[in-house]
Design goal:
CATH class of the largest domain: Alpha Beta
Structural class: alpha/beta
Distance between the termini: 33 Å
Strand content: 15-25%
CATH architecture of the largest domain: 3-Layer(aba) Sandwich
Length: about 350
């Protein structure tokens, strides 16, 4: 979705250079585009680059290198250099949310960031960290909209005026970066003190059902024990289709991100699209992405008092002013233009565009 939303809206490209993004090859049949089976990306292998160098002008990496040995990634980078293909790397994550330790992701970053001809990242805070750690300057281009613009327009309505203040925590499939149980406990305390607040926890079957592949017994038992009180609602489901996901997010007054480490968040951007306030931890660069209610949560633990204060501040502030579909359309045009001009500049630099 992120990649799709880097392209200009129909009719908005103007005089921009045309950008054609190649489809992701199927790992089992690299001459065909991938659909659901896309991991690991074939394009990130030196052999694919050697065989297909004539089919592309610029190589842009976003994600997909988690499973690669850094030596293999270095071979891919070397193949790009041999063929004179500029490398652009968008640094979404300075800490991989799926890894307990930063070591493996750091090893990948130590290959990609020094080698890239141009770096992009999403926030000024992340750019400062990249400069501090690697001495490289990264261009800051914000995260584009996540929700489709027509859908955003359909949700452009005031949040409910009546009913309890609804606070949501989504535990999905429990990435390593997530530590939801202390967050949920603190929110329940806040709900008891407030008296007119409901905490809603949504989680995936694989985490909250006993036969799930990643069943978390402690979390599941806690949710069962407290779901009958009325102050905690638990909804267990598999991955939601987009329309159901947006409906659920738009029904919250506040979405709490239960992360103990991380960098940026697409979930946060979806909430901004839908007019739902966000409480985000002060690890990472979430507050750089857009207005959030910050609280203290990192690998050392949760400051429960700061989370309660963030919830009270969100409640007192009332519904946020959502980004409009027109706002996001203008932003998308700016982002698409910046990418197209960056690619053209790289090609001009190496003499491809005259």
């Amino acid at each position: 979705m992120y990649i799709r939303h880097l392209a200009p809206l129909p009719g908005a490209a103007g005089e921009l250079p045309a950008v054609v993004r190649l489809p992701d090859p199927d790992p089992d049949s690299p001459d065909r585009a991938a659909t659901e089976k896309w991991w690991p990306p074939v394009m990130l292998h030196a052999g694919w680059i050697e065989e297909n160098a004539s089919s592309f002008d610029v190589f842009h990496i976003h994600f997909g290198f988690d499973a690669q040995d850094p030596r293999d990634l270095q071979e891919a980078v070397s193949a790009l250099k041999r063929h004179g293909k500029p490398l652009v790397y968008t640094v979404h994550d300075l800490r991989n949310p799926h890894h307990e330790s930063p070591a493996a992701h750091d090893a990948h970053l130590d290959v990609l960031i020094p080698a890239a001809d141009e770096l992009i990242t999403l926030t000024a805070g992340a750019a400062a960290e990249i400069e501090r750690r690697w001495g490289r300057l990264a261009r800051v281009l914000p995260h584009p909209h996540v929700v489709e613009l027509e859908t955003m327009a359909g949700f452009a309505r005031p949040h409910k005026a009546n009913g309890p203040f609804r606070v949501g925590v989504h535990v999905k499939s429990l990435r390593a970066s997530m530590e939801p149980l202390p967050v949920i406990r603190a929110l329940l305390e806040a709900a008891r003190e407030d008296g007119s607040m409901v905490v809603q926890v949504n989680g995936h079957c694989d985490v909250l059902q006993p036969d799930g592949a990643r069943y978390n017994a402690e979390l599941a038992q806690f949710l069962r024990d407290h779901s009958g009180s009325g102050e905690l609602e638990v909804k267990i489901h598999d991955f939601l289709p987009d329309d159901e996901l947006w409906e659920y997010l738009a029904g919250l007054d506040l979405s709490v991100l239960p992360y103990r480490f991380g960098t940026h968040s697409g979930w946060l951007e979806a909430c901004r699209d839908l007019g739902t306030a966000v409480a985000a931890p002060d690890c990472g660069f979430y507050a750089d992405q857009g207005p959030v209610f910050s609280y203290s949560h990192n690998e050392a633990g949760l400051d429960a008092a700061s989370l309660k204060a963030a919830v009270l501040a969100a409640r007192g502030a009332g519904p946020p002013n959502p980004l409009t579909a027109a706002d996001r359309a203008r932003q998308r045009d700016t982002i698409a233009r910046a990418h197209a001009e960056l690619y053209a500049s790289l090609l001009d630099r190496i003499g491809v565009l005259q």
